[in-house]
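To whoever is covering the structure queue this week,

Two jobs came back overnight. Logging them here so there's a record in the thread.

Job A:
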Amino acid sequence: SFDVNFGAVLHVSQIIARQMIAQGLPGAIVNVSSQASQRALQDHAIYCSTKSALDMLSKIRVNTVNPTVVMTDMGRINWSDPQKSAAMINRIPLGKFAEVDDVVNSILFLLSDKSAMTTGSLLMVDGGFSVS
């Protein structure tokens, strides 16, 4: 889990950053973390810890988006059972999981010039889970 959620992101970010610097390209890096980096989830200690490490890594003109459960193909498979999903959805004030576009739109904002003064931020895309 650490190699996937932290190590891979570190290595890819270093490669991209070096290429951007060498080519004189402006830009930003946005890593995808999780709401679980900010709120402990039962039976997810390793996942929560690796995402917290990723958040700390992402502090210098790098930002993270921290979604709740996202309705990707895997998300639909893992969270389609109403009995399983109810406990989580009940903790989300907007009453639903994130769609892929919710996450993509947040990433596009952070990659745009409109976020030029945004760095080291965690953009929660969690329907209010982290503040409820």
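Job B:
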Amino acid sequence: MSVEELRNRVRELEEELNKLKKNAEGVGRAKITHMSGEVVDSNPYSRLMALKRMGIVEDYEKIRTHTVAVVGVGGVGSVTAEMLTRCGIGKLLLFDYDKVELANMNRLFFQPHQAGLSKVEAAAHTLQFINPDVTFETHNYNITTMDNFDHFMERIKKGSLTEGPVDLVLSCVDNYEARMAVNRACNELGQMWFESGVSENAVSGHIQFLIPGETACFDCAPPLVVASQIDERTLKREGVCAASLPTTMGIVAGMLVQNVLKYLLNFGQVSFYLGYNALVDFFPTMKMRPNPHCDDNWCRKRQAEYAEKKANEPVEEKKEEKEEEVVHEDNDWGICLVDDDAGEASVEGAAQITGLAEGITLAYERPAPTSADSGNTVEVDNTSLDDLMAQMKAI
């Protein structure tokens, strides 16, 4: 048998296998019990509904009314979409323009027989089988192009189950341009969103909750990343692609979905920034205020709206309570208390951030502002005192 005949035979076998799988999935889907609020063993979602009886959430079944958009269905995005599907989310909008490759098989989601399909098509096909109660909407395009960006904004604005705005946008993309596109869309629409990412060395990651006007947007300052304690120069090599670990991606996806559930179902405390360093199992967290000189005009507009809203809120009268001074006989271990705001960073101008939490660094250094943007600032050079004295003597 020739090579070409072998290839044709392999294609025929693959087609037959896909048909068998589709038939099996159809049978399995027919047997799935639809979601019910009753906490009984026959209900596949009983353990989720039990969260209400345990007092964790007020009404877990409200998850079915919410809509979430997932941008980027890769290592983090695909697992995020699967977790939300298993949690019974009402609707998922999936955006991506890549195809499934065999290199993606280290992920926790895609399967070899899906190679060649678009990621959104493969994801929707798998997720519908997992939970047919969820509504899926897929878009196989690049959101950074002009036409696609307009459609992307329109779906965020009208893509929910009630044809209104989605509840959250989750950015799970792996490039700066796409993150900036999500940032611009959410700033213009006043849409809350989560940003997430995994480092190229696959040993650190993070999630960040962004509220236009209240927190720093993605354009306010260089992105925050978790310091990996590895020489970054060893990571980028010619002919070597970024590393990828299903463990790190699964952990970041879990942190992301956990905070999505806390926000949607109103329990616990949502993290504004939560990092992960796999080398030492370190989880830094902090909150960053917006930059009043942000390059994004929609961000500055949302900041003004938020400031006006805070100014119009009634002032609560605080009762002065005299705290009893705690006196310790000794303090051999040098223990001291710190202020609760120690983990909150501010953006000063457009160049740097102060007050970063331990273990967090900037992805890159933003260039200093031009003279047109610097206002009344004074440029300072690095001339030494001896050089200045020598220049004065020469006058």
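Note for Job B: The longest helix spans residues 3-31.

Please reply-all if you pick these up so we don't duplicate work.
Q.
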